[in-house]
Amino acid sequence: MLEFASSDAVRTTGEAPGVCLLNPDTLLLSWDTPTRLWEVPRLETIDGAAISPQATLRLPLDGGGTRLLRVIRRPKDEPITILAEAGTLGRKDEITIDPDGDFEFASASTLLNGVTPAGRLSLVSTLLGMWASLFRLRLSKSYNSFLLQLVAEIVDRPKPAKAVAKLSGEKILLATALPDAFHDIEAVFIVAPSGFKRLTQLPHISKTGPRGQKLVYMIADQPSTASGAYMVVTGVRTLAIRHLPDVSTLPSLARWWQTKGKSDADLREYIIGSLARADMKSSKAAIEFQLRCPLSSQRVSGGGSLPSGEVDLAVTTARGTLIGGWYRDPVDMIASIDLLDSNGIAHPFGDGFYRYQGNVQDDGQTVPATGFVGFYQDIQSPVPILQPRSLMRLKSGNRHLMVPPAQPIDPAEARARILRAVPPQHLTSEIIENCLAPVIGDLQQKLMASAKVDRVIDIGTPHDDPDVSIIVPLYRVLGFLRAQIGAFACDDWVAKYCELVFVLDSPEQAEECEHLLRGLHVLYGIPMRLVVMTRNGGYARACNAGAENAHGHYLAMLNSDVIPHTPGWAQGMASKMGGPDEVAVVGPKLLFEDGSIQHAGMYFARNESGKWLNYHYHKGMPDQFRDANIERSVPGVTGACMMIHRDAFDAVDGFTEDYVIGDYEDSDLCLKIRKADFDIKYVPDVSLYHFERKSISTHADYMRGVAAEYNAWLHASRWADALEDLHTNGVPQNRSRKTPNGEAA
């Protein structure tokens, strides 16, 4: 029998248990029985009440007996009397524990004495895992000291683990060898003088060495590996303990990788994936490692009747992995294209894989091929994986590795690659929804997070309290500014009651744009504000940034290629705001260069393919066409020129920013305004010239057509019911509305 406590601390009617402390508030009770215990004996108070929390562990002994361990909370005020069953002996003993008893702390050597290897594994796993959590022992210094002693007692001379590289900040890469018999690693713990913790990421088994040992890599925090620390690896019926060296200097991950000539792609992805799920420094380290140590791209080369193919698009995001490429299969030898995870396990795409027919350049010749694009949701990473690998699996059972070139790290460049992945003629709603949309959405979100206001430059003395803020997003094309600002300056109402806010969405032109605006200010004397973005974020982000830096009661959104040809346009639009129907948005007539109508309000209809698209009333008709000169409520108006009540704009959170580059944000805003029960008016008495799409035409990604298809799909999927209702029933008339500030009208 183990003896831990004095007789004054524990009184019993039968054989006294050993009682000791795991920490000042937690007791460990121990009995040794001469036979195996196959059932867990009950433990309860003398009056039959359950003891909670409590935990039990049975440890087999070398002689065939059992060491029964029970953990309970130490009584605080009054002695506690416990009724304990003596296992298979059929006897019940009463044990009284005094809260003020003089208990010793647990002794590792005493506890391990006579316990079988399987029992030691069970004990270590339980002490580091369940008991530490159940009894809140993780922050206990005394418990941690006991664990250190226990781990040191299990193995006399533990083998060392090796710290091989510094990853980032305080994270290091460890390596150790484990016997080939070590099966299925379940957990890895670091037990150090400063505390103990379980590694969140299971280790990577790299290979089996010539001596039948598995080379295992894992990532840990450097402070936890200070002098005197141990690594505890548990598996199925296996336990390994390694001594951790005190690390002073280590090579960087990239230098170690290049010096050692590493070619283990699975290990590379394990390191990247582990860093990606850690802190910000580690995430940046994952990106740097990929850029400094790229994989060699690899395609399947065929010829004649042999299959060939390559993956040229591969993007892993927090929502899944997207790949795209082509293959040739003249005699039907290819079974599937599979995606590899960080452990080198192949995953078929299933329903998220789409094919289309086309031509490719293969060995200098244009040949027919099958294009493909696939999305696999379960392989994710918060940090981009720049070279996710794929397999071409043949029906013969052979497998051929495909490695894409390093993909762009910038979300806008990665998005551009995706927009070019499928030719527009082969793009379908199913491909967009099930394949492209999740990854584009993730990249768009990252892009918006990086597209911020860099600086605000006031040119001249700003208006104190403008009625209208005219917000003009600028992207690359600055040639219309002279004409546009000249028209503003010739309009007395604009000069007196409006502020001009220009948002530069191509910050590389900041110096040129500021110089131009300052010159125009000297010429016309009209004050201006220039908002410079950190990067191109698209129309919606630019307009929202302009609104954030505007002070008018009304916001006039105006494209840079829209030119007023007569004064009074802003005053005319502002005069139509509010009224009995509480008009929150107003749109004017827009004209092409030849004087024909470009916009007389916006409506929604399906095209010949059944897709919902935006249309402009009376487009191409003469300016004086009768039906285009009737003021009326319309489903929406174009963002090329619209005026919106500031309170209504804020109430619907401005423009939605998940549309790509610049399209459908205006109709989305109008639908949000209508959903909030405000009205939208078309005002034909105000007309301006619109030199349509002069800025967006400089965006190569948009002109390929896929961005427009994606935006149309996103818009329709979000607003299908509203679009159908407006198309069938028209604009609601004569109903109670809300004022822009949210009050009932």
Protein model, in words:
It is a single chain. The chain is an alpha+beta fold. It is 26% helix and 32% strand. It contains 18 helices and 38 strands. The strands form 8 sheets. Strands 26, 27, 28, 29, 30, 31, 32, 33, 36, 37 and 38 form an 11-stranded mixed sheet that branches. Strands 9-17-16-12-13 form a 5-stranded mixed sheet.
What is the structure about, briefly put?
This protein has 745 residues and is an alpha+beta fold. Helices cover 26% and strands 32% of the residues.
What is the fold's blueprint, element by element?
Elements: E1 10-12, E2 18-23, E3 26-33, E4 43-45, E5 54-60, E6 66-73, E7 80-85, E8 92-97, H1 108-112, H2 117-128, H3 130-134, H4 141-154, E9 159-160, E10 162-168, E11 171-179, E12 185-192, E13 195-198, E14 204-208, E15 213-221, E16 230-235, E17 238-243, H5 253-260, H6 265-276, H7 280-292, E18 308-317, E19 320-328, E20 334-340, E21 346-348, E22 353-362, E23 365-376, E24 390-394, E25 399-402, H8 411-419, H9 429-450, E26 453-459, E27 468-474, H10 481-489, H11 492-497, E28 498-504, H12 510-524, E29 528-533, H13 539-548, E30 554-558, E31 562-564, H14 569-574, E32 583-591, E33 597-599, E34 602-606, E35 612-616, E36 632-633, E37 641-645, H15 646-651, H16 665-675, E38 679-690, H17 700-703, H18 706-729
